[in-house]
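Course assignment 3, question 2. Fill in each field.
Student: A.L.
Task: Predict the tertiary structure for the chain below.
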Amino acid sequence: MSEAKTYRTLMFSENAPGVGLVRLNRPEQLNAIDVPMVGELTDLFASLSQNEAIHVVILTGEGRGFCSGADLREVVSPANQAAFADPESFLRLAQERYASLILGLRNLPQPVIAAVNGPAAGAGFALALASDVRIASPEAYFVASFINIGLSGGELGTSYFLPRLVGLSRASEILLTGRKVSAAEAEGMGLVNRVVSRETLLDEAVALACKMTGKSVGGLKLTKRVLERNIDAPSLAAAVDLENRNQAMLVFSGDFGRLIVPFAKTPRPDQREG
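Answer field:
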């Protein structure tokens, strides 16, 4: 077995069999994303996409923050001034690099659970939105902070994910005002699945992940894929067609035949003795 790779801005471990735990690890900066973290997350997501031993991924932050967004102190440092030479340079050297993180996370074949343990602002908010399931502690809050620094509120996929989670009207208010959304409010509007104590947050995320790892690997992957594709399906017929093809593949995967054996051994109600 190859030695696990170590990172400077991240920590990765297999927290339970088949469950990969990714911790953003810049706690003094509330896990703000700097250039090294962009590179390390890109590398880790690429590695996870090929890792057949990891079936579910949990994403959380070290310390009291989930992720406070891009490290703006680094953004305005002289070392990064080349990105601000002109719009083309900014697009190539900054914008597309950060956006690739969201695509990399979303393209993981494994379900991703965001365990939001504190502030999720800007790019951190986007990472939470790009996850498949969100669990939060009461200390968590969500901010689409882009508009607060003169940018569009639609950034890093927020204008795609947020309306699909909470509806266009609520998404419009959140993106246009840049206000904080508390964990309790986020739960009420369906932005997070549930709120649990900070002390039990990771345990809850792992327990949920273990419920998933108890299912077939193919079933997990194709369920994630069908949800992602069918949210934008052009018609019910197109959605059902994709479901049909997925089921036809999984019936012959081996897991289906094994898992229905107990049902074959159970008498039908009309065959049971009175």
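Instructor remarks: Residues 217-268 form one domain. The radius of gyration is 21 Å.
Grade: pending
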